[in-house]
Amino acid sequence: MSPGDDIDHRGTPFTPPLLDALLNALCDPATRYPRLGYAIFDSATFKADACFNSATFESKALFVSATFEGPAWFGSATFQRGEWSGPGTLVGDAAFGPAAFKAESWFVSATFEGPAWFGSATFTAAARFDSATFESKAWFESATFKGVARFDSATFKADAGFESATFERSSRLGPLVCAGLVRLSGATFGGPVSLGVAARRLECRRARWSSTAEVRLRYATVDFAHAVFEYPLTIGAEPDPFVLSDGFELAEEPFADAFDVTVRIASLRGVDAAHLVLANVDLTGCLFTGTVHLDQLRLEGACRFNTVPRSVHWRGWRPTRLTQRRTLVEEHHWRARQSASVPGWQAAPSGAGHVGPLQLAPVYRALRKAFEDGKHEPGAADFYYGEMEMRRHADDIPRSERSLLTAYWALSGYGLRASRALGWLAAAMLLTILLLMGFGLPSNDPKQEANGTVPPGGGRVTFEIGQGDPDNPTGNRFTGERFEKALNVTLNSVVFRSADQDLTTAGTYIEMTSRLTEPVLLGLAVLAVRNRVKR
Question: Whole-angstrom Cα distance, residue 287 to residue 296?
Fold first, then answer.
């Protein structure tokens, strides 16, 4: 045999002397390391150490259903992209599934130039893929890691699939770099895990964490729909590059041109958020409907939500500008479906589903409580506004309640828009002044008269002091003097006081109405200011 030859050792039981003899025969004199062509070790059994360190596999390397009873050493090995089109084409250029690694497996600094398949493989002891490079897709679906799994500084230049994989013990997946999608859907973590990923996307649908975990991310858009968190789990954005154990920063070559390291949460639907902590993540596109215990969600740092459209739009002859507030993207989706909605609301992408006010109201209510528990009153106020908006538009409320909510919204923005309440207060005061000047103030202040009768024989005289009825105004009613009197009456009405001013019968009713409405509007304005500045 000579270096680079194709070999077929399916089902061969390798003892250490036999494996050494094989690899010595394939040793390249130039590198002093084995160089193999198309290598088939399917169902082979390695009785002791299987040392392929620094070996080069020039074509496919197939270890399908192989058993490694001793340590498996593939450190710095190179698995080149194979050109073979025969058996094994569908399982990748480097195929180790469903192999059984009964002792330590070492793929540190290995290079996989073609697809790598470890599907359904079993790693009984430690599995080390530190600094490994996967230049094509890598599959670890349904793999079982019974020992410690390490992927420190690993680089995936395409997708990395860990669907339905099981990590039974404490593991550290990363920090690693993936230029594509990292799939952890259906994966199970039985022990504490630290996950550090710089990737385009991370998919953790129906993943299960049975112990504490920390997920630190960069650049990624994350989908946690229907994931299960049995213990506290923290999902946070890492603003600076990951630092490795040797003190050097993790190289992020696939993201050399990227300037935005923002981590975006795509979905939390079906998640029990009682143990979930989000830190410095972007929630502008997150789907929350169906999340359980959302009121116990903890938000740390700068977690950003979506907002309403900012531009001014015209509805017929009048301009419309929406007051800025935090909102959910699902409200965007619902409003974009309405025929009378203003432009700027985001339409729902395919697969997002359709929810309405009836489903969104409890989501806003739960997030409001989460903000209140975090002592973030301005944020809670925004979600209270959203909750009231969804209640007002829901189909299951009586018409009377809808009318009451509409009036509450129009007068003060549910007690959260001070400018709106102050505007109505100013309008009410102006109307009161005009009505008092026109109808409420008499033309002249009535004069007091004293009437009495002197007894014929003299003696004590008793006088009765009375005042005539105010005369309705005539002539020029809008004068500076009458304005001053009307303003005095109106200002006293705002603070629920009665002015010492004679009024006509109409003026009395005008003042009564003013003393009823204007203090309410002033109270709504004060309430709105308090809700915005309270901590």
Answer: 17
Could you write out the DSSP letters of every residue in 181-205? EEE-TT-EE-S-EEEEEEEEEEE-T
Q: Is 452 exposed, middle or buried (0-12, 13-18, 19+ CB in 10 A)?
A: exposed
Distance CA 112, CA 134 (A): 5
Q: Hunting for tokens 């207060």 — which residue is that?
A: 425
Q: What is the pLDDT of residues 29-70, one digit of tens each?
A: 999 999 999 999 999 999 999 999 999 999 999 999 999 999
- Percent of the chain beyond pLDDT 70? 91
> How large a percentage of the chain has pLDDT more than 90?
60
Q: Distances in Å between the alpha carbon of 84 and those of 40, 81, 99?
A: 12, 9, 21
Separation of alpha carbons 406 and 523, rounded Å? 18
Q: What is the rounded distance in angstroms from the CA atom of residue 473 to the CA atom of residue 279?
A: 68
Question: Which DSSP helix (H) or strand (E) runs through 400?
Answer: helix 399-412
**One-letter amino acid identity for 136?**
S
Classify residue 124 as left (phi > 0), alpha (psi -120 to 50) or beta.
alpha
Q: Is the dihedral of CA 252, 254, 256, 261 positive or negative?
A: negative
Give the C-alpha separation, 193 to 215, whole Å. Answer: 8
Structural contact between residues 145 and 126, judged by C-beta atoms closer than 8 angstroms: no
Q: Which long-range contacts (CB under 8 A, 24 or more apart) does 42-46 make?
A: 42/10, 42/11, 42/66, 43/10, 43/11, 43/67, 44/9, 44/10, 44/11, 44/12, 44/13, 44/14, 45/12, 45/13, 45/14, 45/69, 46/14, 46/19, 46/70, 46/72
Tokens 């509409």 correspond to what residue? 406
Among 36, 43, 42, residue whose Cα is nearest residue 22: 36
Query: Under a CB-based contact definition with an 8 Å cutoff, are residues 22 and 7 in contact?
Result: yes
Rounded Cα distance, 143 and 105, in Å = 14
Q: Could you tell me if 212 and 194 are in contact, meaning their C-beta atoms sit under 8 angstroms apart?
A: no
pLDDT score, position 477: 81
**Which residues are registered as beta bridge partners of 128?**
106, 150
What is residue 90's predicted lDDT score, i.e. its pLDDT?
A: 46
Q: How far is CA 359 from the centre of its chain?
A: 18
Q: Contact at 8 Å (CB) between 446 and 469?
A: yes
Contact (CB, 8 A) for 92 and 70: no
Could you say which DSSP state residue 343 is in? Answer: T
325-375 per-position pLDDT tens digit? 899 999 999 999 888 777 888 888 887 888 999 999 999 999 999 998 888
Q: Measured in Å, how far apart are the chain's first and last C-alpha atoms? A: 79
Question: How far apart are the C-alpha atoms of 25 and 23, rounded to whole Å?
Answer: 5
Sequential DSSP letters for 200-238: EEEE-TT-EE-S-EEEEEES-EEE-TT-EESS-EEEEE-
Backbone phi, psi, residue 351, to 5°: 90, -5
Q: Is the dihedral of CA 87, 90, 93, 99 positive or negative?
A: negative
- pLDDT band for position 314 (50/70/90)? low
